[in-house]
Amino acid sequence: PIVGIFSVGNVERYRWTDSVQHPDEIRLWVADTVANGMRPWFTKFAGSINDPRWLKPVEEIYNWCYRNETYLRNERPLARVGLMYSQQTSWFYSGERDIEAVVSDPIDGWYQALIEARVPFEMVHDRFMDSEQLKAFKTLILPNIACLSDKQCSQLRAFVEGGGGIVATYETSLFDENGKPRNDFGLSDLFGVSFKSREGPMQNAYLTLEHETAKGHPLLKGLEDAPRIIHGVNRLNVNSRLSFPNPPMTLIPSYPDLPMEKVFARIPRTDTAEVYLREFDSGGHVVFFPWDIDRTFWEILSVDHFKLLRNAVHWATPEESPVTVTGPGVLDVTVWKQKESMTVHLVNLTNPMMMKGPVRELIPLTKQQVRFRLPEGYRPRRVRLLEAGTSPRFRHKGDWIELTVPSILVHEVVAVDLKRDA
């Protein structure tokens, strides 16, 4: 079991260990803790109660967990996308660089994008990439995982050879496990390109979306009306080892942003691809962005970058998601299997304060259409909404269930009691 410690005080910079948060903030973040498979562990500093506002929400949280304990004893996640974290990249790659910019920010950018896209995902540690650990996943995301050993690169090749997908960014595999620079990407054979040089920080650089030559490419879905979008801040010059005809995006190099009379593109068009996509005979897919799209997205939250990240994951994962949720708002969607049940958690993160954390008001969502796949070999015996305490009408066809969740204030859980096929 993994626990998520929560408290009624700020225990970081200023050590306000005996103050409290707003009750709605406690409710929301504990709900997301539970939805992501952790067990809530409440902590109160000091034995006196100077502000009783936290008592009721904490009592309600634990009563809810007690009532629904059967559905919280998760055996395994059913997510098919893994987001990699690399401790060795954090240790060895940072050097004199800003550790947040090269390690934390790319991960946070992907985390934000996957939640916005309502893609269920799990964190994957780079030290656990053997075939047994990765067999649950269809796609792995490598957010600037710069430091990878030869063995880890081989494990990723095996993953693609087994039909898996990879989405990688910027300097992924350009260093070994000790932070020693390589002459070329350790995954150059998967990316189909070789490292040449670095460029950045860039200012006033753009991307041409090649709608004419890359007609209807899935990577450009939702960007059909955009002839060009902003670029990132740092990029790599690479040499193609293979033919990449009709790239969906090409480079518009940086040009002056001031004075005003000089604001025009010196090179308005190039054939320099800024994304490389490969399909393998095994069914594996590889997407490589040779620039810091994930870090830049976290910094500026451009919707165009979000769409590229979302579309890259969908393209690299050519199968239907285990769960799709359609409706307004921002939801963290997770899906789990228990011994005799499965659950789909829907946590309502729709809030102007979501990027900071100190939530002051819960904003309810209207109805959400939920479609999810049953574990292989099972049929539904009963379906419940744990927060609403109701048994909704649902449609069962083959391995899929469809239903409507009428509303979500903080957290709703679709719980399915399962029975094995005869």
Rounded mean pLDDT score: 94
Portion in beta strands: 25-35%
| Rg over CA atoms | 23 Å
Sheet/helix structural class: alpha+beta
Description:
The chain has 422 residues and is α+β, with helices and mostly antiparallel strands. Helices cover 22% and strands 28% of the residues. The chain has 9 helices and 22 strands. Strands 5-4-6-7-14-13 form a 6-stranded mixed sheet, sandwiched between helices. A 5-stranded antiparallel sheet has the order 3-16-17-22-19, with helices on one face. The model has no long low-confidence stretch (mean pLDDT 94).
Helix/strand layout:
Layout: E1 3-7, H1 23-35, E2 39-43, H2 55-67, E3 76-77, E4 81-85, H3 87-92, H4 99-116, E5 121-125, H5 131-134, E6 139-142, H6 150-161, E7 165-169, H7 188-191, E8 193-199, E9 206-209, E10 228-230, E11 235-240, E12 249-252, E13 276-279, E14 285-289, H8 293-300, H9 303-316, E15 323-326, E16 331-337, E17 341-348, E18 368-373, E19 378-385, E20 394-397, E21 400-405, E22 411-420
